[in-house]
Amino acid sequence: MSKRILVVDDAMFMRATVKRILEQAGYEVAGEAENGAMAVERYGELKPDAVLMDITMPVMDGISAAKAILQSDPGAIVLMCTALGQQNLVIEAIKAGVKDYIVKPFQPDRVLEGVGKALGVA
Amino acid sequence: MGFDMEMSDLLSVFLEEAEEQLQRLDDGFLQLERDPADLEIMKEVFRAAHTLKGSSATMGLKEIADLTHAMENLLDPLRSGTLSATPEITDVLLTGTDALRTLIGQVNNGEQMDLDTSEIRERLKAACSGAQTDSASSKPANKKKAPSKVKEDIEPGAMSIRLKVSDDCLMPAVRAFMVYNTLAPLGKLLSADPSHDKLEDLQAGQEMSITFAPSDGPDAVVAALKSVAEIDLVEFTVASEETSPQQDGKPPASQKPAPTARSNAEPASKSIQTVRVGVDRLDTLMNLVAELVIDRTRMTQIGGELASKYENEDLVQGLGETAVHIGRVVTELQEHIMKVRLLPVEQVFSRFPRMVRDLSHKVGKDVDLVLEGQDTELDRSILEDIVDPLTHLLRNAVDHGVESPEEREAAGKSRRARVVLAAKQEENRIIIEVQDDGNGISLEKVKAAALKNGAVTEELLSRMSDDESLQLIFASGVSTAEKVTDVSGRGVGMDVVRNNIQGLSGNVEVKTEAGVGTTFRINLPLTLAIIQALVTEVGENIFVIPLSAVVETFRCRADEVHYIDGHPAINFRGSVLHLCKMSNLFGSQHDMSLSSDDGWITFVVARTGALKLGLVVDRLVGEQEVVIKPLGAFFGDIDGIAGATILGDGRVALIVDVGALGALVNRRKRDRLVVEAGRA
């Protein structure tokens, strides 16, 4: 069964881009969320294998959301999607238990490498 | 991995969102100008710039990505409070937004992006200089550093590990941190180069050297390191028993604390499930429903006939019940689809604060634009078409409506003028008002201009009430330029405003009070696709008249009709009402005289703008909901006909364009200098 992934980004364009990359590689996008609060909620509903989480989002940012998800499920596999210049935030996320990060603009190979390694399938 | 990222179909998503981000930037900067200390707004504009940067970079739109990046760099210190917004900063940010709009517009039109943004980026950069610059792209500027030699003398069982960060790694420091983080639970870090507090020095392609004392043997360490992306294990050696302990590795806790997460403790919002649907699909749905509405009417009619023919048949009764139910469902379907097509007026209103700001700066006014009722909903096709009229009215309000701060002060008013753009729903009509607190429109100037342009005669004018004369500003030929002053040289007159609005089955009125201000009130239908109409018969033809234009129906004796310059009119409730003989409006006969077999003339009193008309028909059939269909290219634009519709009995009816008929009568009045006019 293909791995199920939750894609979180406030920009629909970004979600669509990531979704395409993942689906072309045979992953299933289990759901999408457009802010951190929705991500936490959807994670609970969908129990995806991994989460791709944007950092800068309204309502609740990605770091807080990642922390909340990891608190409820310490085994959660969360990857941060980040822009250059947000390294301090990424480090904070990794300290909190986030598995990896992917830098925007997304390159398909990088996204898949990161997701694959985090899920232990590549 | 060979990946063909076909982005073209994502372009529309990008463009749509880019439009939203631009609007957010514009709004945010304008609010910032009012209140430079508002950090919430700062956060929001930062997010918008940040998102746009990421999306445009992914689309490969470098020019846009570079510019948003430069804006983000300026927004970052503003957001963190190390820099405060000055008018100059807001200005350069707005200039940046304009450039973005131009670029995105070019992408939208499939053109090359040919705007050079280097100057704007320089200005953005210069504006940053008040604060620590470029925190959003801090790339370590350190020279390449050769990895220090692997220590020879290390703890027994300890590993010397050499790792290489991939050449194209984008955040090497984070990778290094991940290495340490991965290792931490597996043993004790003895030494590391670069050390924890020098992580930023690490460059892509550089090597890291680590000595590490694993608590569980080297294999787990190797496996763990392999799970870190963009890190290659170059080599590792395990020290033998003889070597002595060398140094106590510091635990990876000496890390510089990262900035605290901006945890917004807002309660988790209930997830809103939305789907974006293309306008064309909505239009198709609407068309299909419109077909159903026609069939529903026809079915009800046939059902009625069947029932009277076969009164006692169970089947017919069952059919009738089913027909009633289908009719109800169709009605509901129609209502819901109509609701889907409705958009909040905010979508149009949101562009005006910026426009008003720019214009008021240009003409030296201080204007506060107040938006009200932004969540009022309107059919999207109407929404698109009211942009121009509203733009015109607002420009007028700023340019001519309100006075300069000095004049206002002298008149005992606040220096800052107030222009209100308000929308609200009244039954099934939408009212949009543009209201200013300026000096009012000079009635004398309007009258003079109207006379000069031949829109009215002296005599007619002398009979008009002030309110009626004021409406003359909408008459074509009465130049707004002469009404007050020059209208920014756009050459669009108030008659165009009125024609646009009448084209939407709406109308516009103006009220003014000297020294207090002017209000334009636009009255629009909720939707254009399906209307309530009055069905009438004229000879063999059926004409339907939009109910929104109908004032009342009336009958008079044929001998009450007078002829003014050959055209029929009657004395209707004390004023002159022009009669339009529908039978020869679209027919070949030009006999103006009115007669009927029984000596009675039936007409529908319809209103367009301030003018009332009597549309003479043979018979009134009744009210019905009709679906407007265009006549099609074969017929082209026929003056006085807004479209066609199919009635319940399958007959085709023409929909009367009352506005166009009014224009026809107005033209005739001007051409022939008809003295009397049918005014309400």
Considering the chains and any ligands shown, give keywords for the structure.
heterodimer; A: 122 residues; alpha/beta; Rossmann fold; 5-stranded parallel β-sheet; 5 helices; globular; B: 680 residues; alpha+beta; Four Helix Bundle (Hemerythrin (Met), subunit A); Alpha-Beta Plaits; 5 domains; 6-stranded mixed β-sheet; 5-stranded mixed β-sheet
Protein model, in words:
By secondary structure, chain A is of the alpha/beta class. Chain A has a single domain, classed as Response regulator (Rossmann fold), CATH 3.40.50.2300. In chain A, 46% of the residues lie in helices and 20% in strands. In chain A, strand 3 (50-54), helix 3 (62-72) and strand 4 (78-82) form a beta-alpha-beta unit. In chain A, helix 2 (36-46) packs parallel to helix 3 (62-72). The mean pLDDT of chain A is 88. With 680 residues, chain B is an alpha+beta fold. Chain B folds into five domains: 8-137, Four Helix Bundle (Hemerythrin (Met), subunit A) (Up-down Bundle); 159-238, Histidine kinase CheA-like, P2 response regulator-binding domain (Alpha-Beta Plaits), CATH 3.30.70; 279-344; 364-525, 2-Layer Sandwich (Heat Shock Protein 90), CATH 3.30.565.10; 530-672, SH3 type barrels, CATH 2.30.30.40. In chain B, 40% of the residues lie in helices and 22% in strands. Chain B has 21 helices and 22 strands. In chain B, the strands form five sheets. Chain B has a six-stranded mixed beta sheet with strand order 14-18-19-17-16-15. In chain B, strands 6-8-9-11-10 form a five-stranded mixed beta sheet. The relative contact order of chain B is 0.06. Residues 132-152, 241-271, 480-491 and 673-680 of chain B have low confidence and may be disordered. At the A-B interface, helix 1, helix 2, helix 3, helix 4 and strand 5 of A face helix 1, helix 2 and helix 6 of B.
